[in-house]
Amino acid sequence: MTYQIGDEVVIASPATSLVQQYKGETGTITDVAEGGPYNYEVHLKYRKIAFAASELAHVTPEDEVNHPAHYTWLPHGVEVIDITELLNFNVGNVVKYALRAGHKTEDPTTDLRKAAWYINREIERLEAK
Q1: How far apart are CA 129 and CA 107, in angstroms?
Q2: Hey, how many other C-beta atoms are within 10 angstroms of the C-beta on 5?
Q3: How far apart are CA 89 and CA 6, in angstroms?
Q4: Distance CA 34, CA 122 (A)
Q5: Of the residues 10, 20, 45, 85, which has the maximum number of CB atoms within 10 A of its CB?
Q6: Residue 47: what are its φ and ψ, rounded to 5°?
Q7: E strands along the chain, which residues?
């Protein structure tokens, strides 16, 4: 697949361990170089990195619904839902809000406050038993 400057992409299959941390992040193609394996420069949140076409995928509206970047940044293709579905509702939400803190918005404090709210709710639930 080929990409053009301005295309919105998601880092889908990073080829090297050096860029695995960016899996699931979205960005914009800012430069296309001729030749070489990593010829697509992608502007991510705070940096520009070169990727090969095979490491990228076009962003579709479903990506933001089914696999938003703030839930898919974990390594090895693990998504936040893969973890939270193993837990009860309150504890799952603690994990969800803690893991997305700083990934959905630049300020992590709202998500961390929400995680704390669910921790306190779970403590109250357990103490009421």
Answers
A1: 36
A2: 11
A3: 40
A4: 55
A5: 10
A6: -155, 165
A7: 8-11, 26-32, 40-43, 48-51, 56-58
